[in-house]
Amino acid sequence: MRQGGQPVDERCSIQTLAPFAQKRYREESRPITPPRLRPRRSLLAGPVPSFPDEAMLISKIRCQKRLAILWFTGGGLLFFLLLLQTFFGRYGDQVKEAWSWFLPTIMPTLLLIAGVVASDLFGRSDRTARVEAFSFRLAYIVSLAYLLIVSLTLFLSPFSPLSQLELMHLSNLWLGPLQGLTGAVLGFFFVSQDK
Fold first, then answer.
1. pLDDT (tens digit per residue) in 140-161
2. Which of 21, 26, 65, 137 is the most buried if burial means most Cβ atoms within 10 Å?
3. Calculated CA dihedral for residues 150, 154, 159, 161, nearest 10 degrees
4. CA-to-CA distance for 144 and 140, rounded, in angstroms?
């Protein structure tokens, strides 16, 4: 069919497009309603409420398990790294100095977490206890930062002009205060609870 000398495509005529235009007009004329607010997911603590007024409480047992996994995994990897370095003679006749640096750096916090986990296993803690998400996140981030700094002391020693043992002794200047901060944050987390 020709109209004004030009061929007309039947698929684009007014009659074929009218139902689509009517449907779109009906959709656009509907009142706008806000989308339903859904809880966001947090990487560390599960669902987070969307409303700032609500207290963000999460399971204390779940958070303790995550902290235990972080510390036992990180501490275990560092332990095996130091063990391998000892077997391959990295420290020579100064093996005792290397281990006397490492054990006080990691063990107090590992023993604290092991005590809390053992207390949970023997049923001495409230299984329904909940804690604020902020206190857990703070404890997790400070713990992760501490373990990373300890591991940097071991991993970056080949690139340092100091010997590894000198670097270990020097690192006590920043690891001591950071260990105190980590212990304080973890202690605050373990004693805080809101039912």
1. 999 999 999 999 998 888 888 8
2. 137
3. 90
4. 6
Are residues 71 and 110 in contact, defined by beta-carbon separation less than 8 angstroms? yes
43/65 Cα distance (integer angstroms): 15
If you write DSSP's letter for every residue of 56-82 in order, what string do you get? Answer: -EEEHHHHHHHHHHHHHHHHHHHHHHH
The band of 52, judged by pLDDT with boundaries at 50, 70 and 90, is very low
Residue type for position 137: R
What mean pLDDT value characterizes the chain?
79
Q: pLDDT value at position 51?
A: 44
Tell me the three state secondary structure of residue 135.
Answer: helix
Strands, E assignment, the chain:
2-3, 6-7, 40-42, 46-48, 57-59, 130-132
Q: Write the burial class of residue 19 (CB in 10 Å: 0-12 exposed, 13-18 middle, 19+ buried).
A: exposed
Long-range contacts of 89-96 (CB under 8 A, 24+ apart): 90/164, 91/164, 91/165, 94/165
Given a contact cutoff of 8 angstroms between Cβ atoms, the answer to whether 64 and 114 are in contact is: no
**Alpha carbon distances (Å) from 169 to 5, 77, 118, 148, 191:** 93, 21, 33, 17, 33
